[in-house]
């Protein structure tokens, strides 16, 4: 018996193993951004509505209406509304999406408007993958921007991109651990589905047509899945090598791996398979996400069941991941401009928002309410029918609720016991007469309406998205707070006369979403995300100028806020390096913000030199008018970002950090070797002067005019010391340095109460060189 | 001969006036005969011995007056340790000496400028401990490290965009950011009062920094930390 049971179990397991997992239906519209529509990962499937990561918001109160016949002669009334209420969620659309849906009204937009929509989508969730190569000189106004890669790629380094890609590969192989998490935040799910990212034709040595993003359409090549990548063929990372040169060598080898070629000069003339495929590996999840809609009964209903319906949201997980990463990259623009945090939670829990005339109205972002001011509510983009793009549907569903509410002993305000009646004699059949009382006027056909349920949505990640983007210290959108806070208002809505109806039906009578035009299907948008819409516009206004060289034109002028606070350096992207360099350097020698009061001659001279430094290569402060021979001006004019040479292997004169030490010491008559390299300079100090280092290093070792040595933690630089600066001032709190060949001319490094130096970001103070014994 | 010279000295000692009459014109005659009014004079030379110089530095000697072609040909150089060099006159008051090979690193060189094999001027200098080739290699590495350092620096300023305003100091408080605790450390330098604390927090707010986002802590004048750092 036991053996039979065991066999049955084994057979069941076998059946489970051989049963194919659900595959994408050919009828479903798969696309690169959503390769598995409506398919959830096991992690997503296992989530429940009680999970705390779900954000409840956006209550809807459809109204059931049933005509009751009331008798004026009754002193009290009994009113009843009963039936089945059906909420059709088929038009439940997230507004974060694309303009790719051919049925979308956005399909006919001009190229420029599409491009702006695309840019919005990149910011929100598409910053990782497009099947086209990026043009070198995209023409924004003519739609060339359409094929550009995402903002994320513009602003982040290749190294970080590769790390994210590796992480996604590991997630697809269920090999991802939060212990090795490059995202800087917890991703939406630890695992993702094993996407087919491209088709590869070995004989042609190239990526081939991959039109419908369905593996069946990989006709002239082999589908490449995320799981095909591993440590032998993914892009090498600098941190895996002890020197940049070793990394460069490994990168070159990887670029020609499996089919690539070099010419006689050693230049790569054809990339290999994995190098060509690498751009197609996404950096972020493309999973659908599960949320819920809960119908909650009105108090007093006879059938007061709570119904929960899962819904599938496209893009939200991706939006969460990308926007969080973008917020990390852009956090410098997040906290300093407007420090008032929007109370978004209250927005989300506020059912109807407020009209300027203080009347409540229902949510309907599909409606173009251009007359509403920004303070009217979170949807601050009145033209969101243009910008919000969209297309991908959430998985539809129907919520059916039994509705039954009876109210008795209501005072009859029309009470009329002497209601006028007339006695009539009528012939009910030939020759047969009957006397009746005509009391028709004593009855009133009264439509009785109440909101039997309200719908509350529980949507994943929105809270995190807002916390990361809007409300946290790294919040990028925090720059763009609403002008006024909208007070939440509870209570049943009365609707707005011109507002289209949502897709509700009520078998007992008719359904309304307020006073609507019944039967007109409408799509409703999340108000919280409508809020983001305005933030999105402001973010575009921030990033577009350096992406396109052109200022951003607001769709909604009311989204525009005063210019940001000036006086803080805001790192922006370059067109190439992605390290946060400004695309154009200033030609001004931005002065140091503190006066030169140092009594130490070295510190005083260092202040003078640094104060007069100009931006040079990469816009670092490495061009000294005092020492013009120490700057390769000719090369700078031609190639300010050193994009045309391999500067790791080519000598380019600039005013390095060590030059500041050399010049100031020489001019003060203090022996100093021309040691350009930081470790060599440290050796010189150790041999000829005094070098404090090791565990005992503390602020008491530091004096103005001394040299401070830095080491960057976590770099593949063999633990070497990386950078030097001159100590300008020493206080109980820490040291202030002045520096050359740096992106900032000065820096403050705090000390601990015990005098040891704190780690600042990834920067450690590891030594202090003093000319004094 | 020696005896004749001794006799002459005896005579001069015995008749000093006569000796003076003989010696002064003789000396004047000798000066007239042997002096060269066109002898070059050196006014400056470079490098000096104050700072180590690169191994491919060109040496320069500046003369007081222009040297004729003939005089230039009489100028020579004596170097110790020896190195071969090319002499060049960019103008007739300036001599440039370019070593044919890079000089030895970390070596003190003595240079004598000779005119008609007589020493006109001497100077010395010390070469840098590192050769030009080594420095080139150092420069490439330092360029990379400065670049990486700036990446770390930019990360800090991206994460803490207000950091360029830190520390905030006044007569009554100073504010720094404690990276270990990720909080603002506000040291009160005066009697701690709520007003003073509010002023300090307001200083942060004035920079559009919400101190509540990061948190903060106060150090009062009598705290152990204060005592420690006052030691």
Walk me through the structure.
By secondary structure, chain A is α+β, with helices and mostly antiparallel strands. Among the domains of chain A are: 196-281, no CATH class; 601-770, endopeptidase fold (from Nostoc punctiforme), CATH 3.90.1720. Chain A is built from 16 helices and 25 strands. In chain A, strands 20-25-21-22-23-24 form a six-stranded antiparallel β-sheet, covered by helices on one side. In chain A, a hairpin with a 5-residue loop joins strand 7 and strand 8 (268-270). In chain A, helix 3 crosses helix 8 (316-329), helix 8 packs parallel to helix 11 and helix 13 crosses helix 15 (657-667). Chain B has helices at residues 2-14, 16-34, 69-74, 132-159, 194-206, 211-214, 224-230; strands spanning 42-46, 59-63, 75-80, 85-91, 94-99, 108-115, 118-126, 168-169, 173-178, 183-188, 216-219. Chain B contains seven helices and eleven strands. In chain B, helix 1 (2-14) crosses helix 2 (16-34). Chain B is elongated and about 105 Å long. In chain B, the strands form three sheets. Chain B has a four-stranded antiparallel β-sheet with strand order 1-2-5-4, with no helix packed on it. In chain B, strands 8-9-10-11 form a four-stranded mixed β-sheet. Chain B folds into four domains: 2-34, no CATH class; 42-126, Immunoglobulin-like; 133-159; 163-230, 2-Layer Sandwich (GMP Synthetase, Chain A, domain 3), CATH 3.30.300. Classes of the chains: A alpha+beta (773), B alpha+beta (231).
Form type of chain B: elongated
Name the chain pair with the biggest interface and residue counts per chain: A-B, 81 and 58 residues
**Rg from alpha-carbon coordinates of chain A:** 34 Å
Q: Mean pLDDT of chain B, nearest integer? A: 80
Structural domain tally of chain B: 4
For the record, the CATH architecture of the domain at 601-770 in chain A stands as Alpha-Beta Complex
Form type of chain A: elongated
Task: Please give the alpha-carbon distance between the first and last residues of chain A.
Answer: 90 Å
Q: Give the C-level CATH assignment of the largest domain in chain B.
A: Mainly Beta
Provide the CATH architecture of the largest domain in chain B.
Sandwich
The total count of helices of chain B amounts to 7
Major β-sheet profile of chain B: 4 strands, antiparallel
Listing every helix as H and every strand as E from the N terminus to the C terminus, the arrangement of chain B reads HHEEHEEEEEHEEEHHEH
Give the overall pLDDT of chain A as a whole number.
Answer: 66
Oligomer: heterodimer
Largest sheet of chain A, order of strands side by side?
Answer: 20-25-21-22-23-24
- Straight-line distance between termini of chain B: 85 Å
Q: How many β-strand runs of chain B?
A: 11
Radius of gyration of chain B: 36 Å
Percent of residues in β-strands of chain B: 25-35%
């Amino acid at each position: 018996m036991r053996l039979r049971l065991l066999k049955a179990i084994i057979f069941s397991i076998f059946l489970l193993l051989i049963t194919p997992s659900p595959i994408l239906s050919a009828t479903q519209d798969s696309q690169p951004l959503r390769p598995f529509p409506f398919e959830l990962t096991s992690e997503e499937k296992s989530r429940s509505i009680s999970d705390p990561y779900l954000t409840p918001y956006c209550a809807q109160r459809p109204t059931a209406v049933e005509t009751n016949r009331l008798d004026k002669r009754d002193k009290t009334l009994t009113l009843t509304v009963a039936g089945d209420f059906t909420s059709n969620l088929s038009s439940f659309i997230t507004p974060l999406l694309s303009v790719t849906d051919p049925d979308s009204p956005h399909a006919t937009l001009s190229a420029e408007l599409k491009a702006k929509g695309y840019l919005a989508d990149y910011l929100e969730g598409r910053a990782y993958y497009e099947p086209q190569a990026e043009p070198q000189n995209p023409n924004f106004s003519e739609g060339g921007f359409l094929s550009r890669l995402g903002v994320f790629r513009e602003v982040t380094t290749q190294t970080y991109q590769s790390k994210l890609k590796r992480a996604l590969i590991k997630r697809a192989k269920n090999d991802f651990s939060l212990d090795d998490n490059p995202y800087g935040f917890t991703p939406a799910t630890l695992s993702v589905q094993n996407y087919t990212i491209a088709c590869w034709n070995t004989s042609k040595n190239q990526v081939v047509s991959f039109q419908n993003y369905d593996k069946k359409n990989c006709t002239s090549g082999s589908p490449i899945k995320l799981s095909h990548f591993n440590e032998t063929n993914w892009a090498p990372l600098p941190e895996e090598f002890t020197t940049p040169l070793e990394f460069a060598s490994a990168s070159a080898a990887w670029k020609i791996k499996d089919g690539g070629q070099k010419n006689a000069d050693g230049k790569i003339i054809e990339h290999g398979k994995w190098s060509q495929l690498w751009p197609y590996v996404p950096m972020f999840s493309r999973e659908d996400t599960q949320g819920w809609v809960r119908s909650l009964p009105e108090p007093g209903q006879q059938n007061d069941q709570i119904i929960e319906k899962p819904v599938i949201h496209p893009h939200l997980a991706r939006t969460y991941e990308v926007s969080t990463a973008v917020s990390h990259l852009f956090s410098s623009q997040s906290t300093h401009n407007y420090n008032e945090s929007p109370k978004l939670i209250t927005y989300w829990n506020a059912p109807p928002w407020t009209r300027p005339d203080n009347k409540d109205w229902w949510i309907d972002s599909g409606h173009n309410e251009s007359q509403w001011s920004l303070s009217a509510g979170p949807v601050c983009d009145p033209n969101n029918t243009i910008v919000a793009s969209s297309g991908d549907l959430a998985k539809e569903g129907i919520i059916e609720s039994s509705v039954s509410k009876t109210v008795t002993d209501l005072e009859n305000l029309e009470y009329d016991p002497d209601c006028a009646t007339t006695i009539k004699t009528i012939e009910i059949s030939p020759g047969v007469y009957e006397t009746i009382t005509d009391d028709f006027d004593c009855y009133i056909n009264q439509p009785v309406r109440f909101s039997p349920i309200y719908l509350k949505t529980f949507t994943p990640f929105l809270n995190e998205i807002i916390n990361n983007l809007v409300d946290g210290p790294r919040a990028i959108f925090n720059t763009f707070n609403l002008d006024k806070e909208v007070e939440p208002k509870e209570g049943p809505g009365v609707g707005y006369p011109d507002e289209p109806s949502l897709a509700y039906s009520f078998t007992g009578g008719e359904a309304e979403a307020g006073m609507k035009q019944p039967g007109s299907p409408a799509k409703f948008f999340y108000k919280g995300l409508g809020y983001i819409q305005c933030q999105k516009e402001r973010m575009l206004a921030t990033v577009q100028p350096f992406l396109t060289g052109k200022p951003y034109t607001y769709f909604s002028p009311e989204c525009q806020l005063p210019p940001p606070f000036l006086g803080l350096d805001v790192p922006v992207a370059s067109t190439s390096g992605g390290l946060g360099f400004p695309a154009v350097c200033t030609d001004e020698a931005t002065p140091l913000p503190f006066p030169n009061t140092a009594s130490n001659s070295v510190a005083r001279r260092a202040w003078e030199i640094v104060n007069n430094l100009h931006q040079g290569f990469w816009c670092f402060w490495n061009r000294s008018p005092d020492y013009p021979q120490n700057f390769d001006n000719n090369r700078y004019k031609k190639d300010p970002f050193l994009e045309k040479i391999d500067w790791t292997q080519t000598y380019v004169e600039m005013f390095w950090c060590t030059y500041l030490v050399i010049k100031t010491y020489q001019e003060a008559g203090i022996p100093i070797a021309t040691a350009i390299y930081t470790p060599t300079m440290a050796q010189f100090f150790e041999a000829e002067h005094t070098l404090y280092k090791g565990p005992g290093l503390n602020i008491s070792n530091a004096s103005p005019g001394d040299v401070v040595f830095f080491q960057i933690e976590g770099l593949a630089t063999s633990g070497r010391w990386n950078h030097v600066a001159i100590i300008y001032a020493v206080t109980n709190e820490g040291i202030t340095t002045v520096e050359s060949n740096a992106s900032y001319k000065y820096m403050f490094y705090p000390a601990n109460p015990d005098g040891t130096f704190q780690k600042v970001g990834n920067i450690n103070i590891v030594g202090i060189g003093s000319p004094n014994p | 001969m020696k005896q004749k010279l001794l006799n002459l000295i005896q005579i001069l000692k015995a008749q000093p006036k006569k000796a003076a009459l003989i010696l002064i014109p003789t000396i004047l005659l000798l000066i007239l005969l042997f002096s060269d009014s066109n002898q070059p004079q050196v006014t400056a030379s470079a490098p000096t011995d104050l700072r180590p110089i690169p191994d491919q530095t060109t040496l320069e000697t500046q003369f007081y007056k222009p040297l004729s072609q003939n005089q230039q040909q009489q100028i020579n150089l004596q170097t110790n340790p020896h190195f071969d060099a090319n002499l060049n006159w960019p103008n007739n008051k300036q001599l440039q000496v370019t070593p044919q090979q890079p000089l030895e690193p970390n070596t003190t060189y003595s240079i004598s400028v000779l005119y008609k094999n007589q020493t006109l001027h001497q100077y010395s200098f010390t070469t840098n401990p590192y050769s030009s080739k080594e420095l080139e290699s150092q420069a490439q590495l330092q360029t990379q490290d400065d670049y990486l350092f700036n990446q770390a620096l930019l990360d800090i300023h991206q994460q803490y965009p207000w950091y360029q305003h830190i520390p905030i100091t006044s007569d009554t408080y100073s504010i720094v950011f404690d990276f270990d605790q990720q909080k603002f450390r506000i040291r009160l330098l005066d009697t701690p009062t709520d007003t003073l604390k509010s002023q300090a927090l307001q200083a942060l707010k004035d920079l559009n920094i919400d101190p509540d986002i990061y948190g903060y802590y106060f150090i009062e004048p009598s705290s152990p930390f204060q005592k420690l750092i006052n030691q």
